[in-house]
């Protein structure tokens, strides 16, 4: 077959997309389950909403109260049911209709004593209430202090109780509620206090709140002394207030006034007042604050000072706007939406990250690259696949949420939502690519990903939202925090939630885009998306090329000493055949030729020592040239460096020094181009469990630029050649193959498309004898126009397939040549074996010495002895004659004479080299 042109970018992208489609068809239901997860979660929200409505919204405490007012029939059934404030508890009253809200007296908030005692109790009126006054004008301050409180409280039946609050100072120790409709200061059982400069002990009054919703309720009014005290400066006032707050003191502070630079022409005052509590449950529904009466007191005092004692502002009552009956309506989905939907969207992150790390862990990415798949097509198709899945996921989320009626989705503009989610999923995919470079195991990446998912949601609700709602927290730090992707997602969802909770039911529209900071979130995510995508691609290129990610920070002019490995002085004289191979390589480096597909020049690899161990030299200065049409076999014991050499030649690891060329392309600089003409059968089968054998071959055939009928024919021939065609075996998932079938498929993958260079690492491991012979025939037929480097432990395989052999020991090439040359060079002896009784072992030794004085015993156990007899000292006929003569003297159970095998050569070379290395 003629040389094939390397596959173009689009051809590679087409091959990968077809493979992914086939893979996804096998995992269709997994993808469907992933995409419909939003449906399950939205149904969960609806269920939570229904449970909340049943237990909370429809609870009697959360609606206007009703009572039975007519049961004339006496059968226990209510004939008439009346509802309203008059029939409601204090909790229920706030939900009732108030078409004509009642006027209520303005009250001053009076703090409760920390430790009431017999000497100071509000009930006896013996515990004063303090009001502090300070300012720059010493003469003005005391004058205003004297005018703050009225001097008397007269109960006159001709004056309604509505008149009294305007001319008296009433206060309460009850904290205000969310509304004045049912103020606890008026409607509770606690008394109202009249604050006066002087009180008669145990003075009490009462009046009727006739216009209150609960008609004719008697309210008890008790007198309490009010102390209006001057302080020289605001620091003293603050000290008194803090002292009264933290300590159990008698004089509690109800209010304080700093007159600042107030004079007869200018009224300028700062007011301290008692604020009410704000519970965590009602963070967004702050209770009322009783401030108006404090403002009225100082204003009246100033007017009296300027215009005389008769001047007053009559502050008679406070009254709220009318309202209709309301119900407690809580949109659970919108309330918990930020944290809940943060988790929902982030659930895609572990899926994407684990997929990328799985390809790295199983070395599927590198095996695709070895067969010609470029980085560009891989990134484009993988990114497009993840983007497609993520887009379908968020579309289903928005669609399901809208169909089941979640305001979070229905009210906010769909275009804003989609663009926000689309930008974020792109950012999420690029971050997954970036983070995947830090992991090599799926389990580790999965744990880290789920910590990120749930940690982002919890940090968002307990930290980010808290700081975001704190008006004192600098806004620039909010922007800095949004650089963290989880917080930028949370911020966007928070804005959607706020607009969905708006009582106007308007939702977020494009005209609101810049109001809540959503525009800032968009800009941050877009910039992060581009930066993380570039960074991910850069790190991927660095890891695949073996360069230091910070190589551009290195000083190019800094002197870099040569590695100690390069200056190593060898104490062993190279064998003649190895030296000749080195000389041939040096000549090829001067006069390059395309006839040699693989050329290695002084290639070395050393692994750095760890945990106190010494560095390990895996390959010592290997020089090798393999022409096209030759199968070169590498023999050697385990740990000799064979797999390290293959890994260097296939780009898995980078050589420490030296150079290697594949069809004239440097493996350190042009590995991506070298992959286009390369086939690899790794030591372990790297296959997709759900893809069939045919789909594997179609994918790798397309990467070799096979198309149409040529591709189909090549796949058919490959399946037939490795016995995966009959019975539809080639159309079964590779996960159902036996170990031998997987091995045959890996060999077929490495040979499809007639690559010019093929590396096979123990290709026949695990095969039965018949399959092994068939596979050898396939490999032998494929080497016609291909350079093959093969590692094996089978001497039979080496003799059958290899044109030349090289024996590796401790990273060094000990000898090189074809099998006959090696046997002739290292096996110039016969192996004589004889088995007798143990009594005649000495007789056997004497027999062998008579035939060959230089014979050497190499094996002895249980009466069986083996001897090496130099071929130059004996003829085969002499050995037969000696054995026949010996049979007449003692009994011979068995004997044999054999020529040296390749296995004998291998053992001899390996033992000699290892002994020399130990000695040296």
From TrEMBL:
Record's keyword terms, sorted: ATP-binding, Membrane, Nucleotide-binding, Transmembrane, Transmembrane helix
Transmembrane segment boundaries: 34-52, 336-357, 378-404, 416-435, 447-467
Domain ABC transporter: 598-835
SUPFAM superfamilies assigned to the protein according to its UniProt record, in alphabetical order: P-loop containing nucleoside triphosphate hydrolases (SSF52540)
Keyword Nucleotide-binding in annotation: yes
Lineage top rank: taxon: Eukaryota
Gene Ontology molecular-function annotations: ATP binding
GO cellular component: membrane
Lipid bilayer topology: Multi-pass membrane protein
Principal location listed in the UniProt entry: membrane
Cell compartments where the protein resides: Membrane
InterPro entries: AAA+_ATPase, ABC2_TM, ABC_transporter-like_ATP-bd, ABC_transporter-like_CS, ABCA, P-loop_NTPase
Family: Belongs to the ABC transporter superfamily. ABCA family. CPR flippase (TC 3.A.1.211) subfamily.
UniProt name for this protein: ABC transporter domain-containing protein
